[in-house]
Amino acid sequence: MKRVGRWTWMLLTLLLLLCTTAFAKTIECGSIELEQPVEVTLEDRNTLRYTLTAPIDGMRVQVEWLTENKDYISLKVNGDPPYNKKSIYKLEEHGEKTIDLSAALSAELPLTVRFVLHEYRNDEQEPNDMIPTELHDGDSVKFVLDSGDTDRFTITTEKPGQDIALTFSGFNYADRTAFSLFWNNRGWEIEKNGTVFLHAGEPGAYQFSLYKSWSGEISRSMEIHLLDGDENELNDTKETATPLPIGTDAAFSIGGINDEDWFSFEAVPEDGQAKLYTLRLLDFDFENPEIVCYEIYAPDGTVVVPETEIRSRHARVLSCSQQGQYAVRLYPKEKYDHYSEKYNVSIQRAALRIRVEEGGDDPYESNDTWLDAAYIEPGQLISHVLSSGDTDWFCFTVPEDYMTVHVVSNSGGYAGIYTGQELSEYGDDANCIWGGKSNYEYFSNLYWKLGEKGLYYIKLTGGSSEKICSTMISLLPLDEIEDNDVWYRATPLYEDFTQAFDISAHNDMDWFRFTVPEGDQKVLRLNVSKTDTGEQYEYMYFELYREAYFDNQDDGSLYKFDIASSTSKTTKNYAWDLEPGTYYLSVGNTRSTSSPSRIQKFNIHYKLAPRLNNDTIATAAPLTEEEWQDVWQKGYFSIGEHKAGEVVQIQRDEGGDRLGEYTVIYNADGQSIASTDNGSYSFRIPTDGVYYLRVPASVKFSENEPTRTTRIRYYTHNDEIGAADTITMLPNESVFLDLWFSPEIRNSLKVESEDEALTYDSKTGYLTAPNTPEGSADLVFSNGYPEGDERRIEAVTHVIWSENPLSDISISNAPQSLPVGSSVQLEAAVTPDDYIGRVSWESSDPSVLRVLSNGKVVAVGQGEAVITASIGEATSSVTITVTGEQPGESGLTGVSLDRYTLTLYAGEDAEQLTATLKPEGTEATIRWTSSNQTAATVSQDGKITPLSAGVTVVTAAAGDYRASCIVTVQPERVRVTGIRFEETTHTLMMGSTVTLQPIIAPDDATVKNLTWVSSDEQTATVSRTGIVTALSVGETTITATTVDGGYSAEIKIIVTAAAQLGDVNGDGYIDAADALLCLRASVGLITLTPEQEAAADVNHDGLIDAGDAILILRYDARLIPSLN
Questions:
Q1: Residue range 513-528: average pLDDT?
Q2: DSSP secondary structure string for all residues of 70-109
């Protein structure tokens, strides 16, 4: 373990850290005012306190530092630091506030700072964090929310039962950040454009608030309207319930959040016997139904019917034994999101009807045998009695093959389902469809996939109550891809296109297939989303097979994974290397022993990405100047050789998202010279040589959108600053802007816009147009000097936005026909040619042709369809005929190589690359080419001769097919002659690690890469970089083998029991004696054993130094609770 002595004056540092707080004082210094510069000099570690008077409630202030040493001072308002990175403070209630200033321990004293406190307002309604902004019917406001900001509003209703409609806008492709709406002490998540309805009740003033908790700032718009409630308002409580005469209809609607509609009807039992009544709820929209819950209460307040959720026409038979008023409570369905801790509800204010009728019994008796089964229509609510010992038989017709039956009941019994054919042949000895004569399923919520269409019977038994129960037997429509329950009827998947599917029952299985084409090695990027949600966690299992499995050539599946449902959408991504061929994916829950509680809904999406194998600088993939490169996995890219002084512009596009990881720039020696997390960045080449980028990858899947990943490009330039001259785009759209600049003005780059709604985000590199129908404005990029200053350098981009930005659009490369399964990338030519926004693509028949938002078209079925490209009112259409022919059905179908990446060394022997034609036995001429014959040449029999350092692409072509290998030629190398360890044995404590560093001969060997193996991975493991991790007490041998030459060396690792962290001397106590050992070891006065080193490194930074000693002393003084 490495030891360093970082602090010479150890005792002084310890005293400062442990005792400064005890001697510091707070000195009263008078008052300060807003907008007035303040200069403060701190002579010592005391706190200087000023006062500030806040004139109104809810005010916020922002600190503007007028000196550069702000990082060495702490400013707190009422004892609190700023609540975000913009140095903003909340003053809360009006009155006098304390302003405390103190110097940081690292500051040199005396310290003089100057600052100004400004009132901070992020929109014109501020300050409304505490005092609400008053709104009126028809108002429209624009509001801004930043981290921790609350905007409060109030509106006064004029009529009983009015609803408040809030219509939010401003969400778009580039900005989808959610915020929260608080109403009646509850939170609701707002995450898209749309209208939210709030129910007000009695006339008066009502308040709501908007809040954003996460970092960053969002701008949204809100319109507010007052809407009259239904004719029965106010009836929000049991006491104000609307009387409902038997046999008459009453209209109602769920008006908004917190709305409840109560109705009451009078029950009149006769002669002490319960009387039956039927409740009906009517007028539900079949395609877009309102979701309503209801409960029914008896006159004594007991619950007759607990919460029941409905979304379609509904009838329920009630047994009323009490005389008096029964109350019906109707309210919206709410769902609590545990992740956001907010409620979600969908209210449409649909006009519905309620009616109560006399009568209702079990009209289906006597139906105790299959011969007496009552015929029902699927989807019909059955009100019946299933008492102890009773059996109810029903029969129904299934109109299509492979439909799924869904049985829901509150009878508490069991069900068996039979085919009419089985019963007619075997009678009482018939087996139900899942096997056995009495192998029944609990049917409170039962799903089962049926076979052929026809007459089916269901037997209900096992009830225990005389009450009237409700059962519904429904048939679920087939999804569009059935029947694909076996591999040889698998549904084809198309690259980049989302395939939606359902797993409807425990016995349902879906199969899919896709093809990895011949050619370069590919990485399968698979995205699977489970879109149904629910409280009950249920698993679905996926397995991927090669086609060879079905010819008994594979023992099992290649990969397996599962997805569990949850209360929110679940998404999983996978990346696997696949050879060319056809693959099959199975999906089902047949491993589970229970029936699912709902239909399992999924989206599946895949992308075949090139495998670059560029995870080291030595294998970096070349970039072509000015051309965008998709980055599918994190790796290294070469930007070629450059001269000292050249300016290189790096641009990285994440589709409008903030860049998570940094792009890192390396020289040829592998040293990092710069890094950036901005969309556009420039640097100046320090010395002649080859340079490299390490680029992270961020792959994103969206439904029926092309798979998007990180894009990178570079180019050289000599400009101080430059940008695209003119851009035409759609309103509220975000696009990547080509902006370049010299590194000297990189940090002073300033963006000025003629229209404040026209914005540029330097972090993402994206320009966003205002959300207005049309307009234009200049976006000015400068080096920060004011206009008129001779030092000012600027570039201007003129931005035009319009809902109809084009004068012409045409599809330029559409084929007349396509065979099923093939695809084509369509291109749209537009006028003006400076339009850089999105083109909308549409297919007239997605069952024939499917099209993505980037114009990629795939032929999925025979027929004819029209593909239309449009931007605003400008459109262009082409008709494409899809034939039943499959591509490549005869003759040559592909060419493959035995390797797709290769590293050679200049001056060494030629390497053989072998190409194979598909199918086997095909005869065709193979043509070999090298893209860079200075680096390496290739003969026409596939032998590659390395000549000089560089990268080349060697391609084998046959007919219309080709396969390529990336060949990296390194400079002439010095060969390895041996390897050894300085020590033969090393001791580690459990849980600790050590990096082994063997000695490779000669010292200047070119390739020093090693492979590592542990003889006992239960005792200790070793990483591919030689890091040994001790797992359990014992011994193991670590072997290092050179890649060049295959030379090996061994070292024995002995693992001992772990010592207590901090107890360096092993006496069972953690105290000053242990801290002293750390200090002495840090300056080289003593050498610790490996066990002592592991106990001494309490901050886990790999060093034994004063930092560890301070933590031990603070723990001994009880200033911190633990060392973990």
A1: 87
A2: GGGEEEEETTB--SSTT-EEE--SSEEEEEEEEE-TTPPS
Residue 383: CB atoms within 10 Å = 19
Q: How far apart are CA 162 and CA 767, in angstroms?
A: 42
Q: Where are the alpha helices (DSSP H) in 638-761?
A: none
Yes or no: say if 636 and 566 are a contact pair by the CB < 8 Å rule.
no
Give the residue among 1123, 1003, 1023 at the shortest CA–CA distance from 1063: 1123
Query: Which one, of 473, 300, 319, 327, lies nearest residue 385 by Cα?
Result: 319
Dist. CA 632–CA 888, nearest whole Å:
28
For residues 738 and 652, the answer to whether their CB atoms sit within 8 Å is no
Query: Which residue, 735, 695, 733, is CA-closest to 714?
Result: 695
User: What's the rounded Cα separation, in Å, for the pair 572 and 552?
Assistant: 30
Q: Which residue has the tokens 């049309």?
A: 774
Burial of 265 (0-12, 13-18, 19+ CB in 10 A): buried
**In the prediction, which pLDDT does 596 show?**
63
Any idea what the Cα angle at residue 54 is, between residues 49 and 57, rounded to 5°? 135
Q: How many whole angstroms separate alpha carbon 723 and alpha carbon 796?
A: 7
CA distance 857 to 850: 6
Which residues, including other chains, have CB under 8 Å from residue 650's CB and lie 6 or more apart? 663, 665, 676, 680, 681, 682, 683, 693, 712, 713, 714
Question: How many angstroms separate the CA atoms of 794 and 1119, rounded?
Answer: 55
Amino acid at 115: F
At 391, phi and psi to the nearest 5?
-130, 130
- Report the phi/psi class of residue 836: left, alpha or beta, with left for phi > 0 and alpha for psi in -120 to 50: alpha
The yes-or-no verdict on residue 936 having pLDDT over 50 is yes
- Indicate the pTM of the whole model: 0.48
pLDDT tens, position by position, 733-743: 999 999 999 99
Sign of CA dihedral 300, 302, 305, 309: positive
Treating both helix axes as pointing N-terminal to C-terminal, what angle do 1106-1116 and 10-23 enclose, rounded to 10 degrees?
Answer: 40
Is 994 in contact with 988 (CB distance < 8 Å)? yes
Neighbours of 426 (CB within 10 A): 12
Pairing verdict, β 261-267 and 242-243: parallel
For the chain, counts of helices (H) and of strands (E): 5, 91
**661: helix, strand or coil:** coil
d(CA 763, CA 918): 48
Sequence-ordered list of residues with C-beta below 8 angstroms from that of 620, at least 6 positions apart, any chain: 614, 635, 636, 637, 638, 692, 951, 968
Element (H or E) spanning 797, and its range? strand 794-802
**Secondary-structure percent of the chain, ordered helix, strand, coil, rounded to 5:** 5, 45, 45
State the DSSP code for 303.
Answer: E
Instruction: Give the neighbor-by-neighbor strand order of the sheet with 680-684.
Output: 629-631, 710-717, 647-653, 680-684
DSSP structure class, residue 401: T
Cβ atoms 80, 74 nearer than 8 A: no
Confidence of residue 13 (pLDDT cuts 50, 70, 90): very low
Which band of pLDDT confidence, cut at 50, 70 and 90, is reported for residue 411? confident
131 CB neighbour count, 10 Å cutoff: 14
> For residue 295, what pLDDT band results from cuts at 50, 70 and 90?
very high
In whole angstroms, give the CA distance from residue 494 to residue 861. 12
CA angle at 836 for the pair 834 and 839, rounded to the nearest 5°: 125
Average of per-residue pLDDT values in the chain: 85
Tell me how crowded residue 797 is: count the other CB atoms within 10 A of its CB: 22
Q: Is the pLDDT of residue 301 over 80?
A: yes
Q: Which residues lie across from 468 on neighbouring strands?
A: 385
Structure tokens at 131: 């005092």
Tell me the two tokens of residue 205.
Answer: 């003033």
Q: pLDDT by residue (tens digit) across 150-185?
A: 999 999 999 998 999 999 998 876 677 889 999 988
Q: Which of 155-169, 695-709, 965-979 shows the lowest mean pLDDT across its residues?
A: 695-709
Say how far apart CA 744 and CA 785 lie, in whole Å: 14
